[in-house]
Amino acid sequence: AQRVTQPEKLLSVFKGAPVELKCNYSYSGSPELFWYVQYSRQRLQLLLRHISRESIKGFTADLNKGETSFHLKKPFAQEEDSAMYYCALRMDSNYQLIWGAGTKLIIKP
Amino acid sequence: NAGVTQTPKFQVLKTGQSMTLQCAQDMNHNSMYWYRQDPGMGLRLIYYSASEGTTDKGEVPNGYNVSRLNKREFSLRLESAAPSQTSVYFCASSLSGSFTEAFFGQGTRLTVV
């Protein structure tokens, strides 16, 4: 069955340290992968999508089809990065998104 | 610019009661979605509407019905609430399917006692 796994429920790092939020997926077709973020008292919003190959707020994510991973990385964490991060998978242009359980990122000063 | 508006934000129901969650978007999006989120789990799709006039079941449709009233509005109805439906409900919309960004409402926290 299709699945998205975010192995860390909580990740705590110091300001200025590198951050990597892990996302693994199980799907044999052509995936579309997304990272969404929810800051405190704000709505869930798109952070980035793999097709864009963009850097948003210093975050990047590379789709590794061999390892079926889409890890989110940032070289130097900032306090405003503290939030819940969700990885999501859409399969073959289907409307349904499969979501990971989320990782709570805490950046310590 | 309201985006996606859900009402109510909080609701407590007794087992067996019915209620409708309302959702409206002002972005002229074609597709709308209802998700539920339970502790420790990702969002799960209840129903979606790919375009005005169509609705389809998602991963967890049992116990729910939906209505795409027009392009702007997509409501979710619980006919006979059960404690297992205690959850946070999110409405979302997107312009279309592939690679498009989903915009979310602020969520409805529903408790069924």
Strand content of chain B: over 45%
DSSP, total strands of chain A: 11
What structural category characterises the helix and strand content of chain B?
A: mainly beta
Number of helices of chain A: 0
Beta-strand share of residues of chain A: over 45%
Helix content of chain A: under 10%
Distance separating the two termini of chain A = 40 Å
Question: What is Rg of chain B?
Answer: 13 Å
Radius of gyration of chain A: 13 Å
N-to-C span of chain B:
36 Å
**How are helices and strands ordered from N to C of chain A?**
EEEEEEEEEEE
- Gross morphology of chain B: globular
* Quaternary structure type: heterodimer
Largest interface: A-B, 23 and 26 residues
Helix content of chain B: under 10%
Structural overview:
The complex is a heterodimer of chains A (109) and B (113). Chain A has 109 residues and is mainly β. Helices cover 0% and strands 46% of the residues of chain A. Chain A contains no helices and eleven strands. In chain A, strand 5 and strand 6 form a beta hairpin. Chain A is globular and about 40 Å long. The termini of chain A are far apart. The model of chain A has no long low-confidence stretch (mean pLDDT 91). Chain B is mainly β. In chain B, strands 2, 4, 5, 6, 9, 10 and 11 form a seven-stranded mixed sheet that branches. Chain B has a four-stranded antiparallel sheet with strand order 1-3-8-7, with no helix packed on it. In chain B, strand 9 (87-94) and strand 10 (103-104) form a beta hairpin. The mean pLDDT of chain B is 93. Chain A binds chain B through residues 4, 9, 32, 36, 43-46, 49, 51, 86, 88, 90, 93-102, and chain B through 3-4, 31, 33, 40-45, 48, 50, 56, 58-59, 90, 97-99, 101-107.
